[in-house]
């Protein structure tokens, strides 16, 4: 194994594990690169106890002082940029270019955390003669973050810089499929001067997550993953009276109108469906082609044929995921859809044991097919044909999900019409991956997110803090104000 067996990190120490281990594969070549412990509830207990002990002194520091850690952390992300990108690519399978882009977003997240002292100022007002009211934000205590495989560096950085800068202490449970990046993040946080116990890593699967959802000393949980798991976590943790924000899966629709710029649309749709091998919650998954857009579809197919597995297309996370994706393609074909570009059975020379699916474009998909409704999470685009824009919007609106929706057109009026009527939290106009940049927040609608607010940006301030309101009167004269 290239890497030693991974450890939990509790109170800065590389902690114990309890016997259950899972192999960690590199999707690039199918090799076992490490092993990850599947922790039980007692490891969660230890991590929570460490975070609880670290909380009072961490929360006591002024916000500006806590933010200093993230100036240093940001610098370390930059200093180790190439090494972090290589690790992401190795454990997740994405291309090195995509992994670099991921680290860049993590840097932006750390930058946002350093701006919290500017954004998180309290309020004060004289509410009656001699009486003032002030409000200020306080941390919640011990909080948890549960993350998926597809952005092993970025998604932890969606939550930890803001939650910790705002004064909380944290337990992070990364995906057991991509556990290495999180431990490297923990090392960099320690190097940046974060006190022991403020950030703890518990590795594991369902059992560790259940223990986190049930732990009485955890105040809030943020999770990112599939909708199936988002529902489980949201229900279980909120039944235990925790604050919960659970981001789920997606089925993103791109509506393409006949007046769209052909070249830009073809290349943007191809990039959206194939980036990170389609394993992005913002990836184009369904293209709703309105009217006569055949020349755009032809160009799109040409573009996708330039995207080659192992070269400019990364790997799929696991053998099982590859089989699942290919199963969706085969089922759509059997139901009468037409495969325009077929990525099944992709092999990469020298990496025959890697998990690859080539770009796949499927035309004449109908709304009743599974591939039109479910998240495929691979480099696969289902094209649904409609004759009117309203039919296209109806298809988008009928999706159970609601992460992103985009429209490609040269008409401002039609673009606004789609933006107004699409049932999704993040809308793109002539953009294939409409991720809002900081300080705007990230979060979908419908079954793509459970809970209030969004996970990043200004919205996260509300999630990771609670408000204290203090009303003060020093004026002893009676009847000069209405406060008793
Ligand atoms: P997943 O749901 O399988 O796992 C997410 C996390 O939950 C992992 O840490 C995992 O260990 C844990 N988990 C798995 N099964 C569990 C169970 N039964 N009970 C409790 N915890 C469990 O997701 P994944 O495959 O790692 O990631 C891909 C999914 O994440 C896709 O659906 C993708 O759309 C979604 N995602 C969403 C967003 C978003 O912003 N909405 C961002 C990234 C990924």
Kindly list the characteristics that best describe this protein.
globular, Aldehyde Dehydrogenase, Chain A, domain 1, 21% strand, alpha/beta, Aldehyde Dehydrogenase, Chain A, domain 2, seven-stranded mixed beta sheet, 39% helix, single chain, six-stranded mixed beta sheet
Can you summarize this structure?
By secondary structure, this protein is of the alpha/beta class. It contains 16 helices and 20 strands. The site of nicotinamide-adenine-dinucleotide has 28 residues, from helix 8 and helix 9.
Notes on the protein architecture:
This protein has helices spanning 41-60, 63-79, 81-92, 96-114, 116-119, 154-165, 180-191, 206-214, 227-239, 262-274, 294-305, 319-334, 370-373, 389-398, 412-421, 457-464; strands at residues 9-10, 13-14, 21-26, 31-37, 123-128, 131-139, 142-146, 169-173, 199-201, 218-224, 243-247, 252-256, 284-290, 338-341, 360-363, 380-386, 404-408, 426-429, 449-450, 465-473. It is of the alpha/beta class. It has 2 domains: 8-249 and 445-469, 3-Layer(aba) Sandwich (Aldehyde Dehydrogenase, Chain A, domain 1), CATH 3.40.605.10; 252-400 and 404-429, Aldehyde Dehydrogenase, Chain A, domain 2. The radius of gyration is 24 Å and the shape is globular. The chain starts with 8 loop residues before the first strand and ends in an 11-residue tail after the last strand. The chain binds nicotinamide-adenine-dinucleotide. Nicotinamide-adenine-dinucleotide (NAD) is lined by residues 146-150, 155, 173, 175-176, 205-206, 209, 224-226, 229, 232-233, 247-250, 281, 375, 377, 403, 444, 448.
